[in-house]
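Repro:
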Amino acid sequence: MGSSSFVVFLVLHSLIRLRQTIAQTQLCSNRGTFSTNSAYHNNLNLLLSSLPSNTTANGGFYNATAGDDPDKVYSLALCRGDITAEECYKCINSTAQVMTEQCPNKKEAISWSERTMCLLRYSNRDIFGSMEVEPSWSVPNPNNISTDSDKFNQTLYNLVGSLATQASSVSEDQKFATAFSGLTSLRNVYAMVQCTPDISQNACKVCIEGALDEIVKCCGGKEGGRFLRPSCFVWFDLFRFYESSGSEVSIPPTVSKPSPSNPDSLSPPSRTTAKKSNKSQIVTIVVVPTAVLVILVAVACAILLYRRSKTGIHDDDDANKRLESLQFDFHTLRAATENFCDANKLGQGGFGAVYKGSLPNGKKIAVKRLSGQSMQGEEQFKNEILLVAKLQHRNLVSLLGYCSEAEERLLVYEFVGNGSLDHFIFDPTKRTQLNWELRYKIICGITRGILYLHEDSRFRVIHRDLKASNILLDEEMNPKISDFGMARQFFVDQSRLNTGRQMGTLGYMAPEYALHGHVSVKLDVFSFGVLILEMLSGKRNSSLDSSEDVVHLPSYTWKKWREGTISDVIDPTLGGGFRSETMRCIHIGLLCVQQNVEHRPTMAQVILMLTSRSFTLPLPSQPAFFMYHISTEAALPLVESERATTESEQSVGTDRTSYFSQITV
């Protein structure tokens, strides 16, 4: 790598660290550009299109080239050693799509996915077989460790150091290792390391050990952290964040140093001793390895049998430790919210009130005090807490913890300062603060948050109650999806479910769900389409027009689309600029609210539609619940019901016993 390119790498790397909030950790190099439909562009597209299937077929790692110099493209893809083939395929596929959009016409780029599930690189230079340490990224957990930091750092150093040896010693097809070490009698620290299989064993060890030094600097004394390099990565946390396997080991907290050798043993042996030694060596060479092998096989079988019988116990221990780290004391939360006083009340939802609070360390929190009507079991409640706490994305409101004491159940979230989106887009005054650039930013952020829930999180989650009041805005007006009370979790092999619990908000429900209880990811797509149309028009889904008739927003937009007067839909406060962009977003909104489920796009496709002007949009068809106008008298109960629902943030449903609505782990 040339010195100028290296400087560019470091500069861009600094920018990346300042913007840790992007959906994926990626860097676009300045090693050169290519033009659209050029030979380099075609070679790159050929490689990227084949990477997902080839990486999956080759055990999680694949590198290849396409074309000849000067248009030759080198690419490699690596999946984390503990994920499934299906997760690997989806990760590489989505990462490739995002990179082509975020690094247009760049000849070199690198990206780690959001949850460090896969790595993708391509370049116009040979990147195979050589260890590279720049650019690098650090992702520390903001929370400090509660135990002694020096002891913790020493334990972490020993743990990752042992893993460096383990990962560099395994077979060439997967340089990957996981282990844990005890911090206290009740708490462990878990770690994972991995190298790209194309580098040597020694290079792998050097890469991880160097990353270890950096992760101790950036993340030492923290509850978790990741340090990412092009050739390796290190990740640690206080809970088992990876899929454990029979090969996982427990590393002692301290590593004893070998005792000094006996000086007498260093003197040269006599000839007689040498002959005896030769015979002894022959016996040793034959017998000892055989004995060791037999012992190892026996131990391995014993461990396997033990793990099979005790897996549930280990999982319970891990869950209990994780729950312990998430638990808040009721008196602490009561003090933080000033005894849940009305002055600190942020809103009232269908499952309880939300209060602003401040912890003793000054950290602002939002506390949802669940209503006492819940009949949900304690074990189920805690299982759902564990699931939701694992969902971490810049466009999701983070669950920080919970409290369950006597009849009280509380959820503790990060505090998001600017309130909910509906307070802006439906307010005639505040709406003027949302110019087109800001609305587009919010739309894209919501899209990435939903895509994470649908495809990139460890568990597939369908929100089921996506609406403007469930989108919070932080100080920089970044959107964060909140209230997973309607969420329903699916395993990856499930695509649709019939349910008798139709939960959600009138006006945002897809017809197949409202009428028949059919649940799929396209349910959230429909709600997202309604949300886009609301953001572009500044009107609620069902509202009264100047003639006091009720307007169903998707139907009204479709009518104007067919008449060629779509500008009538656009919020006047946006002005006349950005007409093509606003028109494209309305087009996308109409595609999302189509009656036929199969005709609605996925959220991955919506990302491409929003960010790629070269992506040709299909023509929309008639939206669901199509109508032009209905009389005010007939429709007023519907409008008032929806307004009441929005104002109180309540959701309809036949079963409200669970705040998380039967999320299964």
